[in-house]
């Protein structure tokens, strides 16, 4: 199973986006949707990201967390899968394993809100629990807060909403045919020579060379 686009946007709405490098609460350089040097990408060298770059980096980063959910070997619905990926993204694979170890799916859903430190995270836990138990996403309009950065710190009071759904549009499939070259209006493109024409031209060139 793969995380859904709704699940990705759900996590982004919990995390927010910063398009410039900043120092998080424990002094770690971060950019995008929680991207750090541990993800193989040094935020300090990134400059300012576009929204598309931030989304692409996030989609690459999320794989480590979906792998952790896959490793549980549980028979999950899509919304349960998305909820546990969000939980793991926030608290790590170790806490995900602790949450699920020895519990049924119903018990896992009930236990999600036990992880409520710091208090600011309680609302996120409640949303993850609702997603896991009822299949209801909290983000319904695709909008995610983008925070400007000043003096290496996010300006949370100045965050603005951006609909990120267009940034998840599927790219062209590898190997897809290239579009035909445009024809200038009023011009007539030269027709390609037929096989017979090529043959006749070759014979004539032989005689001309004699």
CATH class identity: Mainly Alpha
Our Rg estimate from Cα atoms comes to 26 Å
Got a strand count? 7
Largest sheet: 3 strands, antiparallel
Structural class: alpha+beta
Instruction: Write down the secondary-structure element order.
Output: HEEEHHHHHEEEEH
Q: What is the CATH architecture assignment?
A: Orthogonal Bundle
How far is the N terminus from the C terminus? 70 Å
| CATH topology (fold) name | Lysozyme
**Approximate strand percentage:** 5-15%
Overall average pLDDT: 85
The tally of domains stands at: 1
Number of helices, where a helix is a run of at least 4 consecutive DSSP H or I residues: 7
The rough form would be described as globular
Widest sheet, order of strands = 1-2-3
Low-confidence stretches: 172-210
The helix fraction, in percent, is: 40-55%
């Amino acid at each position: 199973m793969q995380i859904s686009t709704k699940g990705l946007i759900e996590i982004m709405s919990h995390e927010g986006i910063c398009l410039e490098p900043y120092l998080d609460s424990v002094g770690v350089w971060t950019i995008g949707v929680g991207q750090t040097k541990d993800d193989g990408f040094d935020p300090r060298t990134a400059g300012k990201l576009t929204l598309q770059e931030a989304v692409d980096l996030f989609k690459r980063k999320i794989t480590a967390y979906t792998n952790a959910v896959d490793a549980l070997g549980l028979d999950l619905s899509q919304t349960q899968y998305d909820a546990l990926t969000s939980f793991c993204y926030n608290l790590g694979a170790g806490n995900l394993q602790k949450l699920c170890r020895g519990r049924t799916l119903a018990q896992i859903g009930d236990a999600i809100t036990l992880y409520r430190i710091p208090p600011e995270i309680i609302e996120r836990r409640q949303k993850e629990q609702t997603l896991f138990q009822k299949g209801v996403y909290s983000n319904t309009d695709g909008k995610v807060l983008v925070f400007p950065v000043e003096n290496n710190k996010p300006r949370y009071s100045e965050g603005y909403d951006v609909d990120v759904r267009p940034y998840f549009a599927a790219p062209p499939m590898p190997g897809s045919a290239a579009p035909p070259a445009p024809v200038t209006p009023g011009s007539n493109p030269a027709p390609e020579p037929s096989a017979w024409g090529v043959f006749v031209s070759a014979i004539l060139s032989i005689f001309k060379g004699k």
